[in-house]
Amino acid sequence: MSLNNSSNIFLDSVPSNTNRFQVNVINENHESSAAANDNTDPPHYEETSFGDEAQKRLRISFRPGNQECYDNFLQSGETAKTDASFHAYDSHTNTYYLQTFGHNTMDAVPKIEYYRNTGSISGPKVNRPSLLEIHEQLAKNVAVTPSSADRVANGDGIPGDEQAENKEDDQAGVVKFGWVKGVLVRCMLNIWGVMLFIRLSWIVGEAGIGLGVIIIGLSVVVTTLTGISMSAICTNGVVRGGGAYYLISRSLGPEFGGSIGLIFAFANAVAVAMYVVGFAETVVDLLKESDSMMVDPTNDIRIIGSITVVILLGISVAGMEWEAKAQVILLVILLIAIANFFIGTVIPSNNEKKSRGFFNYQASIFAENFGPRFTKGEGFFSVFAIFFPAATGILAGANISGDLEDPQDAIPRGTMLAIFVTTVAYLAVAICVGACVVRDATGNMNDTIISGMNCNGSAACGLGYDFSRCRHEPCQYGLMNNFQVMSMVSGFGPLITAGIFSATLSSALASLVSAPKVFQALCKDNIYKALQFFAKGYGKNNEPLRGYILTFLIAMAFILIAELNTIAPIISNFFLASYALINFSCFHASYAKSPGWRPAYGIYNMWVSLFGAVLCCAVMFVINWWAAVITYVIEFFLYVYVTYKKPDVNWGSSTQALSYVSALDNALELTTVEDHVKNFRPQCIVLTGGPMTRPALLDITHAFTKNSGLCICCEVFVGPRKLCVKEMNGGMAKKQAWLIKNKIKAFYAAVAADCFRDGVRSLLQASGLGRMKPNTLVIGYKKNWRKAPLTEIENYVGIIHDAFDFEIGVVIVRISQGFDISQVLQVQEELERLEQERLALEATIKDNECEEESGGIRGLFKKAGKLNITKTTPKKDGSINTIQSMHVGEFNQKLVEASTQFKKKQEKGTIDVWWLFDDGGLTLLIPYILTLRKKWKDCKLRIYVGGKINRIEEEKIAMASLLSKFRIKFADIHIIGDINIKPNKESWKVFEEMIEPYRLHESCKDLTTAEKLKRETPWKITDAELEAVKEKSYRQVRLNELLQEHSRAANLIVLSLPVARKGSISDLLYMAWLEILTKNLPPVLLVRGNHKNVLTFYS
């Protein structure tokens, strides 16, 4: 019976006829030009192998039958020094090597076109060659011309260029805004709305300066946390139109997005009414002063509001360009008005203003107004509810995300700056107005202090005015009574009125634009099929005219309420519900730990986002509990409706990602959801045998699958079915328990098969459940391939072919010492058993008081207990062994250390990624995930790609742009322009000597002899094959030279795995490629994805 855990089955196992344990130390002192300039001494990597010497055997004496396990170990060291002088050929003498790297193969170099979505407005999507196309043998009737192959492989001739140009022509008239005009201006105008001029003075009068600042601060906390969460979400890929609805729906899925989308659009429509009513109130106050009322104050507000909203609708329908120009003009007016207020506070007050409560800056007024003085029916939270709608303007820029040039940059920058600027302005106005104006004033210039009157601590009394009758009867002036305080304080009153008009109209205009665009994005996604009518857009900017009409009707309905204080709490609850879900979206996406969650905006924390969501929910109930309940009931109803309808959309939401790592009881539900590139994660089958026998291979795989992907440790039992199944079932629970004990989040799976390859083929097809299905095969490098039987090599290369046939990515890991420590484990188990026997025997001997025997036996087992391996010299009869001690740890110290190297925290250094061919991004994704781990966080990514010698800088900029779109941080990018030059003679000679024993040399023999040799040894490398793939062989040898030059000091090398085309490349030649490619290097990961996208820059 031949089992998987025997030495002749494991991929990197030792030859079966080994006699001793040998350590070969390789001195990697290559004297290349680059290395000569490097003052640092790169680490030396040591290789462990088993030699064939039988001299000086070391043995330990124990019971007969157990001696055979330890008969063949010896520590010895032999040093093989490689002395190579590198001299690169002049690449400029042959234009063949000046062409783009990859020109002579169908393998495609990394390009952004491969990662675009179909129908992308930023450019055409190009399909890279499939793995089948580059892996299968070329058909004989297919002629691939260098020009066409080059153009397709390198993207020089991209299908659909003409269509792309036509699309650009169609987009020529589209208006797009930058971060200032598109976000900053809109947010500032929306935040500096009706509250700044009409209600802020009243809020200070009610709550006082102290609580007023707290009210502003609490509002800013909510909006800042939401702004941070929104910035993280919108920088995690390309943002389309729809603003907050788009961000929430793409993060949490259509259920949350669909429910909040309607509420958010409705809230913006109602906000139009709120701002217009604020404007109408100001106009009515002016009419009162001039005694020009039309009907009565309430109806006048309705009339003026209706006329205003009609005019705003006309501006909006005219187009975004006109609306943007109007916003800029309104901002200028608003800034002048604010400046006018501050100027007015330092202009000496006259008697008229003093009678109305304005005395310039006075410490007594500041002290009197610092504390609260709530009137009947008002309190902290009711005042907060009135003010908070002023903070809702932070989404004004995000709501027109589809009209921004670069939403990922514009939304975070513009929104956060707008929050800061407007907060400073609100605080400054609140403090200044509280320090200048008293709470109550009569407006009568004759209400001055009579001589000898007691002021009772009144600030106005101390300044010469008696407003004491305001305690018993209503007054018309002061912070508590006059909503037009800022007009009175300012240097020129009409400017404040103009500012009020500007603030209210700009906010109303922004909301009137936002509501239809958000609603249109919701309708376009077809979540509510009945609303598909409103998805249609008109003109080059795709204006939602139908949405404008609907928003107009909603605003008109709420204008009829004509009470600002009634509208404000409703708006607060609707917007707070949106804010809560934005914060929760950021938390949810972070908590799901999806590799697709890579926000470029790094100043966020998922727990802070969760706190922001909880804070928003709490504030909703504090402001108005019944309105909050109604909001949640509506949202819950819509959520259930969307869930029941199951819209046919797949946005790669964090809900899917979190479901993936949740309990298996959700697996059945997950099968109904298609995979999305954002949620791709490596799901690995690792050919470890028993998981404890190759810990290093398991550790490096676990490093990039822990908490994010599936990891299955697989073992193949080969031999008679009955015996294999018995052994397999007997060890299943033990090996899974070992994984749990060692806190390795992986599964163990085993199969019994007639041969190793058949077993692996079964695992590749049948492993996994639903979406939790492996997509990557991880194997150790077969270190002993030159000494292994031919069938083992065929099985090894065969499973790589099988993985590609099943469209599964392959990762081959090579470390200098190899992975298999099964013999070390056997030694440890045996010595543990011996220790137990020794203790038991000592106790027995002590009890029997057999001193003579106990001394000899104790001496024997004492040495065994100290983990000594003993050298035995058999006498003539072979029955007596002499013991010579040697510490068992010394013979395998290097192997044991290598087996734990990935458990340790990696020193500060680099992970060098040689992304030579575009495999869908797996070669880039795996090292990125590694850098997220605590053990690898000190390692920075260095990216190496091929390119033209005369276009180094251009291609470096292009690759940097691609990586920035992927939100993948890197330390440096190197464009290697000399990959296609021939390797130096010494390196090529090493390769030729390596393959010499396996060559057929049929060209040196007559035809009959050559044909006979081919039939007898079909596995050998023919001269014709070697000549056909000579360029590829050059490439592997040359790459090793470059790796030695650039990456010898790296902590880890991640390298594109060359693909052997079936039927064209013999197994031994392919193994020689892998050997020469990874020879004398730090730990290497050879990676080849399945040529389907695993990275995206879309939301």
UniProtKB/TrEMBL annotation:
<dbReference type="Pfam" id="PF03522">
    <property type="entry name" value="SLC12"/>
</dbReference>
<feature type="transmembrane region" description="Helical">
    <location>
        <begin position="210"/>
        <end position="239"/>
    </location>
</feature>
<dbReference type="InterPro" id="IPR002443">
    <property type="entry name" value="SLC12A1/SLC12A2"/>
</dbReference>
<feature type="coiled-coil region">
    <location>
        <begin position="824"/>
        <end position="851"/>
    </location>
</feature>
<keyword id="KW-0915">Sodium</keyword>
<keyword id="KW-0633">Potassium transport</keyword>
<dbReference type="GO" id="GO:0055078">
    <property type="term" value="P:sodium ion homeostasis"/>
</dbReference>
<protein>
    <submittedName>
        <fullName>Solute carrier family 12 member 1</fullName>
    </submittedName>
</protein>
<dbReference type="GO" id="GO:0055064">
    <property type="term" value="P:chloride ion homeostasis"/>
</dbReference>
<keyword id="KW-0813">Transport</keyword>
<keyword id="KW-0597">Phosphoprotein</keyword>
<keyword id="KW-0812">Transmembrane</keyword>
<dbReference type="GO" id="GO:0055075">
    <property type="term" value="P:potassium ion homeostasis"/>
</dbReference>
<keyword id="KW-1133">Transmembrane helix</keyword>
<feature type="transmembrane region" description="Helical">
    <location>
        <begin position="545"/>
        <end position="564"/>
    </location>
</feature>
<keyword id="KW-0325">Glycoprotein</keyword>
<feature type="domain" description="Amino acid permease N-terminal">
    <location>
        <begin position="90"/>
        <end position="157"/>
    </location>
</feature>
<keyword id="KW-0630">Potassium</keyword>
<feature type="region of interest" description="Disordered">
    <location>
        <begin position="32"/>
        <end position="51"/>
    </location>
</feature>
<keyword id="KW-0769">Symport</keyword>
<comment type="similarity">
    <text>Belongs to the SLC12A transporter family.</text>
</comment>
<dbReference type="InterPro" id="IPR018491">
    <property type="entry name" value="SLC12_C"/>
</dbReference>
<feature type="transmembrane region" description="Helical">
    <location>
        <begin position="379"/>
        <end position="397"/>
    </location>
</feature>
<dbReference type="InterPro" id="IPR013612">
    <property type="entry name" value="AA_permease_N"/>
</dbReference>
<dbReference type="InterPro" id="IPR002445">
    <property type="entry name" value="Slc12a1"/>
</dbReference>
<feature type="domain" description="Amino acid permease/ SLC12A">
    <location>
        <begin position="182"/>
        <end position="685"/>
    </location>
</feature>
<feature type="transmembrane region" description="Helical">
    <location>
        <begin position="177"/>
        <end position="198"/>
    </location>
</feature>
<dbReference type="InterPro" id="IPR004841">
    <property type="entry name" value="AA-permease/SLC12A_dom"/>
</dbReference>
<dbReference type="GO" id="GO:0016324">
    <property type="term" value="C:apical plasma membrane"/>
</dbReference>
<dbReference type="Pfam" id="PF00324">
    <property type="entry name" value="AA_permease"/>
</dbReference>
<feature type="transmembrane region" description="Helical">
    <location>
        <begin position="301"/>
        <end position="320"/>
    </location>
</feature>
<dbReference type="InterPro" id="IPR004842">
    <property type="entry name" value="SLC12A_fam"/>
</dbReference>
<feature type="transmembrane region" description="Helical">
    <location>
        <begin position="259"/>
        <end position="280"/>
    </location>
</feature>
<keyword id="KW-1003">Cell membrane</keyword>
<feature type="transmembrane region" description="Helical">
    <location>
        <begin position="570"/>
        <end position="591"/>
    </location>
</feature>
<dbReference type="Pfam" id="PF08403">
    <property type="entry name" value="AA_permease_N"/>
</dbReference>
<keyword id="KW-0406">Ion transport</keyword>
<feature type="transmembrane region" description="Helical">
    <location>
        <begin position="603"/>
        <end position="627"/>
    </location>
</feature>
<feature type="transmembrane region" description="Helical">
    <location>
        <begin position="417"/>
        <end position="438"/>
    </location>
</feature>
<keyword id="KW-0739">Sodium transport</keyword>
<keyword id="KW-0868">Chloride</keyword>
<keyword id="KW-0175">Coiled coil</keyword>
